[in-house]
């Protein structure tokens, strides 16, 4: 039995992959050309499958890196917009109610891009005012209606 160490370069667009392969071939048996071609085709399919799986992982890693970079930029912008007390309050709200915290962060970033703060930092009192406005806008009202006429029309008491 002979062992071969083969390095193969695969190119998929801008990505180039170097694949190391260890092949064990039994020399004592005689292989026909069709068997060799089938073996080569099988190995090529395996390598292409590995390349596609690796490509998907690279795409996922790239997307994750981009998301992380955007989140870092967002946090940097919020840190420059808010005083430490306001930032601490916003972080506490984001821990208890993530969707509300995210909504307030979005409002702050949009206002900063429009220049609504005039280059000044938002203090805790201003943040509390903004939070009250958001609470009023997202407040859910529950209304219960009783239909008392049904009780009067009930014929079970006869």
Automatic annotation (TrEMBL):
Residues 50-63 have a biased composition (Polar residues). InterPro entries: PDCD5-like (IPR002836), PDCD5-like_sf (IPR036883). One of its GO terms (cellular component) is nucleus. GO terms for molecular function: DNA binding. Pfam families: dsDNA_bind. Residues 64-74 have a biased composition (Basic and acidic residues). Residues 50-75 are annotated as: Disordered. Belongs to the PDCD5 family. PANTHER family: PROGRAMMED CELL DEATH PROTEIN 5. This is Programmed cell death protein 5. It comes from Rotaria sordida.
